[in-house]
Amino acid sequence: xxxxxxxxxxxxxxxxxxxxxxxxxxxxxxxxxxxxxxxxxxxxxxxxxxxxxxxxxxxxxxxxxxxxxxxxxxxxxxxxxxxxxxxxxxxxxxxxxxxxxxxxxxxxxxxxxxxxxxxxxxxxxxxxxxxxxxxxxxxxxxxxxxxxxxxxx
Length: 153
Fold this sequence. Notes:
This protein is α/β, with parallel strands linked by helices. Helices cover 32% and strands 21% of the residues. The protein contains five helices and five strands. Strands 2-3-4-1-5 form a five-stranded parallel β-sheet, with helices on both faces. Mean pLDDT is 79; it is low at 125-140 and 145-153.
């Protein structure tokens, strides 16, 4: 069975490329957030020139040490490439304790285009509810990805 391309949501992500917004894809467990993020990465690799994708899936055991926010931050910073469109995609960011510190620091550098997936916890977005940042330029754009069956999205 092939993947379903969710054109509406993919289009929203594409429309936010190059903005200072932190793109946060939220939804319940197993609704397709990771698939949407991968489709966005595929679109970027095919359509963008000079893109440097820094992709991390925190569910994979080989990334277990990146569950420490300092190591996650260092990992992303080490992969920065001058002169490229540096796109950071972190899947299941909520698994990293105090991830807000790493994300805020990466955002403050103004060198990365950030996209994250976050599992909804009791209908609350942990990221949106716990970030405290006095910098007025920080914008978090939430793209809520619903659990759907046969809807044409």
